[in-house]
Every structure is written in C-alpha cells, then in structure tokens.
Specification:
Among the domains are: 177-322; 325-417, Beta Barrel (OB fold (Dihydrolipoamide Acetyltransferase, E2P)). The protein is built from 17 helices and 8 strands. The protein has helices at 2-24, 40-56, 62-76, 83-95, 99-112, 117-129, 133-145, 156-172, 176-182, 193-209, 215-233, 240-252, 255-258, 264-284, 293-303, 328-336, 378-382; strands at 324-326, 340-346, 357-361, 367-371, 390-394, 405-406, 409-412, 415-417. The protein has a 6-stranded mixed sheet with strand order 6-4-3-2-5-7, with helices on one face. α2 runs antiparallel to α3, α3 (62-76) runs antiparallel to α4 (83-95) and α12 runs antiparallel to α14 (264-284).
C-alpha cells in the first residue's frame, strides 16, 4: 500500500511537470525538456533538477546540488542507455565548475543520441564560454547546416542563441569577412535581420580599427557601420541588442569629431546619426541616461564640432545651455510607495577604482549608507552618481544619529531637460 502511494505521487509529480512544460513552451531544444517514456526514476530526478534551477534562479545551493549529484551518481552506477542521464548530469557538473567532466558527459550523451541538437549546442556553448572559439564554431556550423538557426526548424530561443553565438565566435576569431558574407542579405532575412545587421556593423567597425593610418579607407568603413544602424532604426524600432552595440560604437567613433584629420563628410554622417537616434538608443537601455556624464561628454563634443550645418543644434532633447530637473511627480509616486528621498553628499575616493559605497542624507539630515549591490542599475549607472544626486531608498530601521543607516533598496529618480 505504501509503495502504491509513493508511485502515485511520483506519477502526479511527472504529470504536473509535463503540464507546466507544455504551458511554458518547453520543447526538445530546451535544456529542461524531458523525453516521453523516460524511465520514472530518471524522470523524477530531472524534474527535481529543473525545480532546483527554477527556485534558486542563479544562486548556488551546494547542499541541494550535492544531493542531486549523489542521486545522479546512483543512477549512473547502472549501465544506462538514456542520453538524458548523461546530459542532465553535465548540468550538475557545470554548477560545480568541473569543466573537463562536464564536456566528457556531454560527449557521452551525444554518442548515445547523435541527433540531439540541444546536446550538440551545449557542447558548442561549453567551448565558447571557455574561450575555445574554433571548436565552438565547428559545432555551431554543424547545427546551422541542419537549419537549426531557423526558428521554424527548431524554436525561436534556440535559433536566436545559435545565430548570436556563431556570429560572436567569428567576431572573436577576427573573421570579419565571413560575417560580412553571412550577413550580405541581412535586410531581407525574415528572422534575424536586426541581429545580422548589428553584427555586420560590428564587423565594419572592427575592420576600421585595423586601418588607423589609412584614414580614407577607415572613413568608408565607419560610414558603412553607421549606415547599417540607420537602416535598422529607420522604422522607429530600436532592438535592445542593436542599441547596446550602437551606443558602444558611437563612443568608440567619437575621434571623428575631435581629430582634424577626418573629413567634414564623415563628421556630418556621424553627427546626423547621433541627432536622429541617440536619444531613442539611450532611452531603450536600462541604467543609461542622456543626463549621465558619459552622454553629456559625448554630446558636448558633437554639439561643438565645427561643420556647416550641425543637426544636433536643432534637436529638442539637447542643448548646451539646457539643465535637467527632477520629476516631482515621480518623486511623489516613490514617496507613496514608501521610499525616502536622499541627496548624495559624500563619494569616497579609492586608489584602485570607483568606490562601491556612498553616503547620502534626507531632509531631516539623517545619514544613509548606500552600496552598489542594492542599486537597481548596478555598476552600469553607479559611476554617474555625483555629489548632489537625488536617489530614492528603502531601509529596515533607522540607526542612532551618529551612524549611517544602510539602504536595502536604491532607485533612480526620473529627470527631464528644460
């Protein structure tokens, strides 16, 4: 009777997980996928492993991981012919940073089931994230030859990751012409036009870096890179991954406005792109702001560039004489949500870089200790905080007056330009 109840609970657990997977769109290309007719003890173990990842969300629990590893080891002591046992055991080994064993068991899994695209992709990712781009790209190419970069053949998440990592490998291996060849019809690709365009622009940028002493050729490549981004953004759509790369490239190309060796033509192309797109690019990126020191430094250089018609002079969102003020409505909303508004008054200096903590005070002159770990934008926005910056914080309880109260949550306050 007792065994029957256990079997019933195990069956219910498996069915519940299967229902959840179907609702979540998990398929054979997902690492959490469980094949039909999987032996019950292995099925339950994979369910428990997937549950561990769901509950821990990137945080390691060594005790639970060790228990799962021991259960896998018990099953491995039998001569299993199910590729899933080796595949999912490799996920455990990855958590323990046992890279040689992780690869060994992935290869065992692939040997049992050579047709498994997720196993092959995991091998490729193992090589990629360990800096072995040559072996990674060989693996990715095998998958691409089988059309798995097409979401209709695999699925959108899998094909996107495969497409992106393959292009990244080529970029890291300096195979810029290969990228340009793959992406030559990027505008007409129904699935990945934006990502192909982004890496095409990056390839032109990388090629330009190799021609620092050949300015005319370098200008041509810079122009091509900017032209691609113009086409990506022309419909008013600003994909985040394209915005990330465009922002980086714009900052890296700023020498065209500060170095007199570059022509008025390339200066005009560069400035026009910033006037047309910079505001929207920055607005799409979390932790970025037109009012940040980095943005202001770039925009000031561009604004003061001496060309016949400077389009940045005509935009509504920037002026050299403009000032930004905090949004009172946003402050009121934050206060209603229980946040305290504080003003930064001390940013300690560190010899080895930016301090990870600062001090602020509220209207009652109470002191607060703010640490980057609790800042919503993390390090991305931390470096733009200045003396006088207003922030919204939460805390557990106020410490005595001679001590600074630690903030447990730190938020930016919206600003607008006048």
């Amino acid at each position: 009777m007792h065994k029957r109840i256990i079997r019933k609970k195990l069956k219910e657990k498996i069915l519940l997980q299967k229902t959840r997977d179907e609702k979540s769109g998990i398929n054979e290309f997902d690492e959490k996928f469980i094949e039909d007719n999987t032996e019950r003890s292995l099925n339950v173990l994979i369910v428990d492993l997937n549950t561990y990842y769901t509950l821990n969300k990137g945080k390691k629990d060594i005790t639970k991981l060790t228990a799962l590893k021991n259960r896998f080891t018990d099953l491995l002591s039998f001569d299993s012919k199910d590729y899933q046992l080796f595949y999912h055991y490799s996920r455990i080994l990855k958590e323990f940073s046992d890279k040689p064993s992780e690869l060994k068991f992935l290869e065992k899994s692939l040997k049992i089931n050579p047709k498994s695209p997720r196993t092959k992709f995991s091998i490729g990712k193992h090589h990629f994230y360990n800096g072995d781009y040559k072996n990674a790209i060989e693996t990715f190419n095998e998958l691409i030859e089988n059309k798995y970069n097409n979401p209709k053949i695999s699925c959108r998440v899998f094909s996107y990751s495969l497409t992106k990592l393959n292009l990244l490998c080529l970029l890291y291996l300096n195979k810029y012409n290969s990228i340009l060849d793959i992406t030559k019809n990027w505008e007409n690709d129904i699935n990945w036009s934006a990502i192909y365009g982004t890496y095409r622009a990056s390839a032109y940028k990388r090629q330009s870096e190799e021609l620092k002493n050949e300015i005319p050729k370098r200008e041509e490549l810079i122009s091509k890179s900017i032209k691609v981004f113009n086409k990506i953004f022309k419909e008013g759509d600003y994909p985040i991954f394209a915005c990330i790369e465009a922002k980086k490239i714009l900052h890296e190309f700023d020498f065209v406005v500060t170095n007199n060796s570059y022509s008025k033509k390339i200066k005009s192309i560069y400035i026009s792109f910033i006037a047309n797109h910079f505001f929207n690019i920055i607005s799409r990126l979390r932790g970025e702001s037109i009012d940040s020191k980095e943005s202001k430094d770039l925009l000031s250089k561009v604004y003061n560039t001496d060309i016949e018609i400077n389009p940045l002079h005509n935009v509504s969102w920037y002026s050299e004489n403009s000032t930004s003020i905090y949004d009172k409505e946003h402050i009121s909303e934050l206060e209603e949500e229980g946040y305290t508004i504080v003003e930064v008054y001390n940013i300690p200096e560190k010899d080895n870089g930016l301090s990870n903590f600062i001090f602020a005070k509220d209207k009652q002159e109470r002191q607060f200790f703010l640490v980057v770990a609790y800042y919503e934008s993390g390090w991305n926005g931390w470096g733009y905080i200045e003396i006088g910056t207003l922030l919204a914080i939460k805390y557990d309880y106020i410490l005595p007056v001679d001590k600074a109260t630690p903030a447990t949550e730190i938020k930016e306050i919206d600003q607008y330009i006048i």
